[in-house]
Amino acid sequence: MADISIIVPIYNAEDSLNKCIDSLINQTKKELEIILVNDGSTDDSEDIIKSYKDKRIKYFKNKNQGIGKTRNFGISKATGKYIMFVDSDDYLREDACDILYNYATNNSCDLVVCNFYRVINDELLEEKIDTIGHSLKDDPNILLKVNLSPWNKLYKRELIIDNNIKFVENLKYEDAPFVVEALDKAKKIGQVSECLNYYVIHDNSETTVRDRRCFDILDIIDIIRVYFQNKEYMKDSVCELIVRIITNYNIQQRVQKDKKIGMEFIDKSFSYLNEYVPNYKRNDYFKKRNVFKAIIEKNKLITKMYCFLYRR
Asked: Which string of DSSP letters, residue by residue, matches the chain?
């Protein structure tokens, strides 16, 4: 049994795949299982994968199913004591697995998070996570401090399997509920202050492109809201998370491909806030914002005006 199973979903990643795989096979920690799942790529990704002869690599080729199903498939094939996720355009520091595994085992952690770099046009921007407690009960604001992406984290396999934690399928932003549930079910969360993950942002990546799939974020938010609805100690953190995500996606409608979709999204998102966070204008999120940004983000009409003027 490997110490860590690293799951890499792959779709048309020929430009970045070598760098990603190289960062995995060259880890200082050798007891790895590298699970490469080709999600129906139509480029040369498969040829690149097959060029590697490392026996630790397990390669699977599926028809295109989307990243949620692909990650769930990867989990079903994982046999390691711990699980990591690495996106095919990202890469790891060479000692990332060693550091995370040693921290997890030495401190009996179910989940460990680390700092990371955003990579934009080859520029490294360090992202530091605020100090967190050892569980959500101990520190409900972990929900606000930790990025809700599956990478830059090491998960005990038993945590995922025993609690049947899965990625949402057929929705964009599918990773947030997975990370939220893992954080909630973890009996002990650890934190490493070093930047071990390189998160690469492209101009046309899923992260930056806005189209009609932006409405999926409202479904994702609702999954998280319902999940925590009977946990009173999480109420404030969940409400702040909802406000933060919605206002962020509202402002992002300034780069929406279709102006009508952007205005429709803003209408729907404010309706959601009015229904589920009726006192949202007094939320702690806005107390942390620049006063002018807060004014824009609190008001539907001003948000729409901002997005309209930005497009011009």
From this structure: --SEEEEEEESS-TTTHHHHHHHHHT-S---EEEEEEEES--SSHHHHHHT---TTEEEEEE----HHHHHHHHHHH--SSEEEE--TT-EE-TTHHHHHHHHHHHTT-SEEEEEEEEEETTEEEEEPPPP--SSTTT-TTHHHHS-SSSSSEEEEHHHHHHTT----SSSTTTHHHHHHHHHHH-S-EEEEEEEEEEEEE-TTSTTT--SGGGGHHHHHHHHHHHHHTT-GGGHHHHHHHHHHHHHHHHHGGGG-SSHHHHHHHHHHHHHHHHHH-TTGGG-HHHHTS-HHHHHHHH-HHHHHHHHHHHH-
